[in-house]
Design a protein that fits this description.
The protein is mainly alpha-helical. The protein has 13 helices and nine strands. Strand 4 (120-122) and strand 5 (127-129) form a beta hairpin. The radius of gyration is 25 Å and the shape is elongated. The chain starts with a helix and ends in a 13-residue tail after the last helix. The model is unreliable at 285-316 and 318-347 (pLDDT under 50). Bound molecules: zinc ion (2 copies). One zinc ion is lined by residues 108, 110-111, 121, 127-128.
């Protein structure tokens, strides 16, 4: 399903013709400007939709895949507990904080990997999707870490476009019922356009509002249905870092990229900063493991000498939850049993 250059030229030409029609047919200058700006919503909507559908999902980093020897070892063991021992040993070197409901390490049999936090196997796509939100039949793709921003922008632009159509069609819709329109077949188009645009507006508004709430709370749809399980228990706010950071995790640091459907989310999708890091003594308190203070803090356990450097991001490195655990003295100063939780209150 490739759109040729010829196809793009036709779409662009149609857009320009519509723009010309708006400019010529509207007398009021202010209204003219509003119409021209609103016309831009359509290409943005198509662009975001395109990106949501065709963005390929990133694979979990190779560190999460089992090595050949580990696979052999795992196959040799038939008892669940022995297999868990092996998985626990591998997970020790990885920034994994979530567990299954029974407290076991999350492992995907199908992809033969330790599931990174927030990663789930999609039975439709038949692969593990990083920060999986849901499998969306409307885009025939999973919505996850790689395309969540595009999905949000698609909802936002479609909603604005539908509202624009509803608002501009309203006067003709009223004329339809007051017999103010010429008696042609075209007047039924006004009726159809108004009903379809207003109904889409209602459904898009509810979906968009729900996903805005999820972004603010740093939850995926799956996590909203079932709270993630950490080693100390379930916590629906386990990944929340406060409104500003939650928003930036999806939309990025640079404001100029927020409204454009290009990838600008922070992180690598495999490791997520969590304010609960200090509650999990089995895990490294930093995904890099490069700070000696972290090693001391974690009872002398040796973390990987080759850290997951590619998994670093501005958000991860600047998140106080990592630096809070850098020194035990900081914890003493605060005198809190869970200093990570004091970093930033939930918005
Ligand atoms: Zn999988
Ligand atoms: Zn899927």
């Amino acid at each position: 399903m490739m759109v040729t250059n010829y196809g793009w030229r036709r779409i662009a030409a149609a857009g320009l013709q519509y723009l010309q029609l708006c400019i010529e047919s509207i007398k009021d200058t202010g209204l003219k400007v509003v119409y021209c700006w609103c016309t831009m919503l359509f290409p943005l909507c198509v662009w975001a939709y395109w990106q949501t559908i065709f963005t390929k999902h990133m694979n979990p980093l190779k560190e999460f895949h089992l090595s050949y020897s580990d696979k052999e070892l795992l196959e040799r063991e038939d008892r669940g507990e022995s297999q868990q021992e092996i998985l626990r040993r591998i997970a020790k070197d990885l920034p994994i904080y979530t567990r299954t409901n029974s407290g076991a390490i999350r492992f995907c049999d199908r992809c033969q990997l330790l599931k990174p936090d927030r990663c789930h196997h999609c039975s439709v796509c038949d692969k593990c999707i990083l920060k999986m939100d849901h499998h969306c039949p409307w885009v025939n793709n999973c919505v996850g870490f790689s395309n969540y921003k595009f999905f949000m922008l698609f909802l936002a632009y479609s909603l604005l476009y539908c509202l624009f159509i509803t608002a501009t069609d309203l006067q003709y819709f009223i004329k339809f019922w007051t017999n103010g329109l010429p008696d042609t077949q075209a007047k039924f188009h006004i009726l159809f356009l108004f009903f379809s645009a207003s109904m889409f507006s209602v459904s898009l508004a509810s979906l968009f509002t729900y996903h805005c709430w999820l972004v603010c709370k740093n939850r995926s749809t799956l996590e909203a249905v079932r709270a993630p399980v950490f080693r100390h228990g379930t916590d629906k706010n386990g990944f929340s870092l406060g409104f500003s950071k939650n928003f930036r995790q999806v939309f990025g640091d640079e404001v100029k990229y927020w409204p454009i459907p290009v990838f600008s989310s922070l992180g690598d999708g495999c490791s997520f900063p969590t304010c609960l890091v200090n509650l999990d003594p089995e895990q490294p308190s930093s995904p890099t493991g490069s700070n000696p203070a972290n090693k001391d803090a974690a009872e002398g356990r040796q973390f990987p000498s080759k850290p997951l450097r590619e998994s670093q991001s501005r958000l991860l490195t600047s998140t106080p939850s990592w630096t809070e655990s850098d020194s035990a003295t900081d914890k003493d100063k605060k005198g809190a049993s869970n200093p990570g939780m004091t970093i930033e209150n939930e918005a």
